[in-house]
Amino acid sequence: MDNKLKNKIKDTVRYLAVDILESVENEGAYSNLLLNKVILSEKLSPKDAGLLTEIVYGVIQRKMTLDYGLSSYIKDPKKQLSWLNNLLRVSAYQMVYLTKIPDHAVLFDAVEIAKVKGHAGIASYVNGVLRNVQRNGLRDWKTISNAKKRISVGASMPKWLVAYFIERIGIEETEKMAFSLLEGPFVSLRLQSNEISREEAIGLLKAEGYDAVASPVSHVGIRIHGGKIVDSPLFKDGMLTIQDESSQLVAPVGELEKDFLVLDSCAAPGGKTTHMASYLSASENGKVIALDMYEHKISLINQNAERLHVSDRIETHVLDAKEAVHAFAPESFDVIYVDAPCSGLGLMRRKPEIKYVKNAQDFLDLHQEQLLILDSVSSLLKKGGRLVYSTCTLTKEENQMTVQTFIGNHAEFAIVPIHSDYLDKKSFTPEGFVQIYPHDYGTDGFFISCMVKR
Fold first, then answer.
1. In 10 A of CB 81, how many CB atoms?
2. Which one of 49, 76, 114, 133 has the lowest number of neighbouring Cβ atoms within 10 Å?
3. Which residue intervals of 261-308 are DSSP H helices?
4. DSSP assigned state of 422
5. CA–CA distance from 308 to each of 218, 228, 274, 316 (Å)?
6. Bridge-based pairing state of the strands 333-339 and 240-242
7. For residue 213, what is the enclosing H or E element?
8. Is the pLDDT of residue 3 over 70?
9. Residue 386's closest CA among 435, 316, 330, 454?
10. Cα–Cα distance for residue pair 410/421, rounded to 1 Å
11. 346, 392 in Cβ contact below 8 A?
């Protein structure tokens, strides 16, 4: 193959998809960040960017399903080169799940990519496997008799994780949750400005051509399907920001008043920080102290604060939350938020690679990290002040167990049950915590608890 043709193949969406999947699988790259980087560096058209995004997320979301489906035509995928497995997944995904793409286009690119990355023999093998898929389809996971394995393969979720959730929420809810993660996410917005109502904002978005509806979860939330919201004047003017609806529930739990001094101990990228700031008044000395360990993440908070016109109420510091106890005076904050580092299992719809890389030991390790942060900030809270602890995960070790252990070690703190007119009763635990699963409302999974210092 001449160099001109090789370079042409390397510029195709399918070739780029294989390379991205290789980096995610073998180098631990984050799919969303790498996708954005490639789309910009390759200067892809909106159409190609959309297809690349669909293929990459689709293959990651359904990796185990695709591998099972291809197993009828592949003797030992573990002995195959990694790029070859990803090429077959990319091709099979398009042939089975993207019905508008003609098979001949998929087959042609797959064979040419195999020639560039391998040789003529591998190209012939790829052609043979995909011709079988074209004739007979993928092996049907629905015929698996064992329920755990069927959910695991069908929803592409590791079997140990399926078993973990079955033990916690039962097989029926686990199945609903696991398959809900295969549904495409919508874009969630939060109304930042008090100058217009949510209904007015939705009306303006519809006039701009967006398919916008009110959130069923947050009173300041809006959902849109399709469209590039960053192009909207409402977004550019700082009236709206992108933030998942479940995380929009965190700031109100603090019951903030205009003159409060607030600590947001794990603040980046600033969605919750700017929401907190919207309740405060700079003229009344209300302020959020926002912490993060990394300078580049602090820059994101500052950028968000500037765009949303709340930079006069936000003060940022590059600081590990575990060191906060040494940086601020005891009992100096009215409310403290800890949106703790966690396994992120609530984000599996938007970051599907998470489900393949986490293990049960991670939950316990993070539990210890979370306790260290809570211990550090607890002495900084005024008596009568609220400590709001939240995560974007679904594990008892990082949620209920962390709060209960902290309470057990700090008799001066008591749990305050959370109330919401928007959430279904299933979203509240017996202790008064909020636990949202991805299939409950189509949002990220999220946990929120509130404690008061006596």
1. 11
2. 76
3. 271-277, 295-307
4. S
5. 19, 18, 7, 15
6. unpaired
7. strand 211-214
8. no
9. 454
10. 30
11. yes
Tell how strand 381-391 and strand 333-339 pair up: parallel
- 3-state DSSP call for residue 452? strand
Amino acid 185: pLDDT: 84
Task: In whole angstroms, give the CA distance from residue 207 to residue 169.
Answer: 42
Q: Are strands 287-292 and 261-264 parallel, antiparallel or unpaired?
A: parallel
For domain 247-453, is the CATH number 3.40.50.920? Answer: no
Q: 165 with 174: CB under 8 angstroms?
A: yes
Domain boundaries, the chain: 3-139, 143-180, 187-242, 247-453
How many Å is the maximal CA-CA distance in the chain?
Answer: 75
- Per residue in 349-402, pLDDT (tens digit) is 999 999 999 999 999 999 999 999 999 999 999 999 999 999 999 999 999 999
Its CATH architecture, for the domain 187-242, is 2-Layer Sandwich (3.30)
Closest C-alpha among 88, 211, 34, 65 to residue 142: 65
What are residue 99's phi and psi, to 5 degrees?
Answer: -70, -15
Whole-number Cα distances in Å, 432 to 173, 247, 429 = 21, 17, 5
Domains 3-139 and 247-453 share a fold: no
Note if 392 is an active site residue.
yes
Residues constituting the chain: 454
How do beta strands 434-436 and 413-415 pair?
Answer: unpaired
CA atoms within 13 A on the CB side of 388: 28
Q: Which residues pair with residue 10 across a beta bridge?
A: none
Strand partners, 317: 291
SS3 category, 341? coil
pLDDT digits (tens, 9 = 90+) for 128-185: 999 999 999 999 999 999 999 999 999 999 999 999 999 999 999 999 999 999 998 8
CATH of 3-139, one of 3.90.1300.10, 3.90.105.20, 1.10.940.10, 3.30.300.20: 1.10.940.10
Q: What tokens does 214 get?
A: 């009110």
Average pLDDT over residues 420-446: 94
Q: SS3 of 320, please?
A: coil
Which DSSP symbol is given to 428? B
Residues 6+ apart with CB under 8 A from 196: 204, 239
